[in-house]
Structure formats: structure tokens, C-alpha cells
């Protein structure tokens, strides 16, 4: 166990809906990164937040957005869901952008 | 475009066999390198990392990896695998570009160790 928690564990949405996923980082960690892992693939970097500001972004469209709160927990929001958004969403926390510790993930299914 | 390639998607070994998993990346600047492991039903966890210094790094559970800068490689090795090493292994890099960090993972290698 890494101390990184994510909620919910599973979620089913329909195309066009919006979803919010949540992550609580490990104690003492100020950096949170989000990843999308499709079946049979490695995690794809969505973005990173450091001290409440976006600090890096992968090749994801603007309908993927995030927030980091003063307690360093984080949210990932996805608008206008598409079928291809079905995946495992992973959150990872770290201290000062160093080694990341991953949570268990949220499995999202878009119908 | 930057990428990480893991050459073997599936590997099957008998216990006590030696393991080497290949990882190559494409990025011309300074990188940090990682191997992560995901045991069945568990989270991704860090196996080892390289930031700087000795290019031969040792991780948990007897794993080691060697960074060869000229080959853009960071291969994972273990002299003698155990049944409990059955897992999926991911190579990853991170680097600073335009003042922000990016992380790239390989597609993973599924290792099955036969008892």
C-alpha cells in the first residue's frame, strides 16, 4: 500500500456525460500526476499538479482538466465523455516531483 | 516524438532462469529512468530508479538495471527469477521540457515464471 487513495473504484457513464475522479495523495507529498491506462497499454501521462498549479501536460484534449487543493488532494474532470475514454485512471503522488507512488486506480466504463 | 519501447511483450521463464527485459527511449536531453512492477491485483510500485551517478542501479527484490546513455537503454535484469516475480513490468522516463515535466511509460512486459 502506498497511502494514495482514489475514488470511486469503478464508474459507468454514458457518452457525452461528465465525470470527476478523486485522489488523496500520500502524506507529505505536494505533487500529483494523473494517467490513463487503456487495456493492454502502459499508463499515458495526462497532467501533473505541483502546489496547486498545472506543471506538465501530456497529449490530452482540454476536456481533460484537473485541480489540486491546498491539502494536495486532486481531481480529474473529463467532459463530453467518449467511448475511448474507457480506461483505468491512475493517480500518483510524489514529493517535489520525484519518485511517484501510485494509487489503485478508478476504472471508468463509457457506454 | 518522445517514446519508450519495451521489446518483449510477454516473457515466460522457469524458476532460477536469468531475466533481462529491454527498454529503450527516444529523447535527446536529460532523463530520469524508472522501472515499475505491477503484481496481480496490486498497485503499480517502484522497482528501481536512475536519476544520476552510477549507471548500474539496484532495486528491490534482487532487481538491477543499467543505464547506457549511448544506447538510450535502461534494461532490467535479475540473475535468478522466482515464481513470485510473475507480474507486469513497465519502463518509464521523465524529463523536463519547456519548464514542465513529462512522463512516458512503455507498454509493459508480462512476465510469467513457471514453478
3D architecture notes:
The complex is a heterodimer of chains A (111) and B (115). By secondary structure, chain A is mainly beta. Chain A contains no helices and eleven strands. In chain A, the strands form two sheets. In chain A, strands 2, 4, 5, 6, 9, 10 and 11 form a seven-stranded mixed β-sheet that branches. Chain A has a four-stranded antiparallel β-sheet with strand order 1-3-8-7, with no helix packed on it. Chain A is globular and about 40 Å long. The mean pLDDT of chain A is 93. In chain B, the strands form three sheets. In chain B, strands 2, 5, 6, 10, 11 and 12 form a six-stranded mixed β-sheet that branches. In chain B, strand 8 and strand 9 form a beta hairpin. Chain B is globular and about 50 Å long. The chains are: A mainly beta (111), B mainly beta (115). The interface between A and B is medium-sized, with 26 and 19 residues.
Q: On the 0-100 scale, what is the average pLDDT of chain A?
A: 93
Low-confidence sequence ranges of chain A: none
* Strand tally of chain B: 12
Q: Secondary-structure element order of chain B, as H and E?
A: EEEEEEEEEEEE
Largest sheet of chain A: 7 strands, mixed
Structural class of chain A: mainly beta
